[in-house]
Amino acid sequence: MDVVALSELDPARREAVTTLLRRADDGGTRHEGRLVLAEHASSDKALAGFALLTHARDGSTAIHVVIDPALRMRNAGGEEGGASRLASELTSAAVTVADEDGTGRPLHLWAMQAGPADDQRAEDNGFVPERDVIQMRVPLPLAEDVLRATRPLATRPFVPGKDDEAWLRVNNRAFAEHPEQGSWTLEQLHERLAADWVDLDGFLVADDPDDPEGKSLIGFCWTKIHRNRDPVLGEIYVIGVDPAHHGGGLGRALTVAGLNSMADRGVHVGMLYTDDSNEAAVALYGRLGFTVDHVDRSYRRISTGTGTGPPAS
To answer: Domains in the chain, start-ordered, CATH in brackets?
Structure first.
């Protein structure tokens, strides 16, 4: 297996990684990190899978293992086969790379659509379950009774250069305790807005009616359409309400506004992720017609930090 910095991949290898991410339905944008690459045994050197190590803002290192779906399908019966063995080998190799960095960073291993085999693989590598993130889906357009029961709310598309600071204030207040979404900077916002998937018609904001100068927001709903999925999925990417306006039904109203905007753009399945432990959110989405599709699980391990190499980046 090869270990390489993501930023140092040649164009062909980068395209192979991107293609495998799309095929594996794990299309998150990741610009930095180290890869442990595994190739198929065939002569075409196609990627069979890889482990990606990235640094999180909380000082930990996240490990994502991605396996070629064709290899997974050959093991669909659940027996210990090539896909499972490769996932185990990549996980062990990634843990070794992290430990050799010498930083002692906590490690988070992510398993998409987690099952018993993932739990066992995590345990074998010294990880313990930490967090379940559930993906929920709902048919679009929403049912009429859901729409009738939802408070009407005026929204508009986000305007770059005008709404930046107001959005940051709401986002960072709404997610003050969140390790990933909180404490965003203007630079981070601009970087995300530059992503090729961003459609400002799906980045909805709600103005504060009590602000005569129109410089404040009370909440937002940022959506993301995954057109490479089958079916096409419209994701509630992130939704936030200013804490000063909690309790007024804005979360539901903004969620419905986002789902309606995606239905208007031809999307027939809405999707979102939420922590399984967030009982209030799970209950809210259930009332809107969402049901659980699958669970993504995070496992935690303390790195031994025995090596002397530079940190992964």
So the answer is: 2-132+296-302 (3.40.630.30), 141-267 (3.40.630.30)
